[in-house]
Amino acid sequence: MAVKERVGLVVSDKMDKTVVVAVENRSAHPKYGKIVVQTKRYKAHDEENKCRTGDLVRIQETRPLSRTKRWIVADILNTASPA
Fold it and tell me: What are the DSSP calls for 9-68, one per residue?
């Protein structure tokens, strides 16, 4: 069975060893054809607290780690520029 992976933007890193990743899904409306953007937020495990808000990350599905956490950060694709 293939491992589920998503690419998204870190929107919160305020928790310890956990980040919130927003994944956008852009699809055409079935009737009207307009591009509709749906955003889903996943809580992902970040063992070394490396991720910062604004980073582009790849997350991977795993066993349940807590009540809401079922994903881990596989790798950081692009880091946010320090402001």
Answer: EEEEEEETTEEEEEEEEEEE-TTT--EEEEEEEEEEE-TT----TT-EEEEEE-S--SSS
